[in-house]
Structure formats: C-alpha cells, structure tokens
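Bit of a strange request maybe. I'm writing a small parser for structure token strings and I need a real example to test against, not something I typed by hand. Could someone generate the tokens for this chain?
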Amino acid sequence: MKTRRHAKILELIKEHDIDTQDELLNYLRESGFDVTQATVSRDIKELRLVKTLSRTGNYKYSTGGDIGSDMSSKFYSLFSDSVLSVEAAQNLIVIKCMNGMAQAVCAAMDAAYPQHFVGTLAGDDTIFIVCREEASALETQEEFRKLINR
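Reply from user aminoacidic:
Good idea to test on real output. This should exercise your parser:
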C-alpha cells in the first residue's frame, strides 16, 4: 500500500503544482487513499520532497533531483530579483534589468528555456530575445511579467 501511495504522490506532484500538505492530502483522498496528515508528512520526508519555485512564482513540491527543475527554480529567483521590465514588440522581447545583471539573467534563461527562442543577446542591463512569431513573444511577455510582479 505504501509503495502505491508513494508512486501516486510522485505522479500527483508531477501533474499538479501542489504547495501544501493539506492539498496533497486532498488529492490522495480523491484518488482513493485513506490517509492522515501525519502519513502525508512522513511520506514527504521519506520521498525527500522539497519545495521549489514553479513557473507561476509560487512554491510546489518536487523531487528536487531534476536538474532542469533546479535550473528553472534558480532562473525564476534570479529573474524576479533582477528584472525591472519586460516589453514585447512584434516578435521581439526587450527585458530591462538592474545594472550588470542582464548577462546572468540571460544565461539562466537560456538554460531554463533551451531552444525556446530563436536567439538571445544580453548587454549590461538589457536583454533582446527573438521569438519565432509575435504570438509567442506576447505569451512570453505575460509569463515573464508575472514573475516580476509576484
């Protein structure tokens, strides 16, 4: 039973951005597992789950072993601490950063979003991003603005 429950927990945290034990408890109960908060707490400890930053800027449970997830978490933290504004213009995005931070943010963005953009270019306080189409630039602009307004 415990093995099945652990497998279900790993499946749930992969599918949903779960940020509290209570939320995980509810998902498990909806999935047919009769568990208590203490059991969920032990499971989290046994599975060595950690809280990482999600794309929305909120925390969520994860296994912590995924390098891509770790890089994404670092990117979101660096981005929210360093970026001042994000503006899309046709298929381009211009990101204004604190002085000296653009190259670090751009390098983290390239690692967190491999092959997501046609190209990126960073100066001292400005990043230029080339997207394939205007819709992609607008969508990315909104996603990035949420990160700086969290």
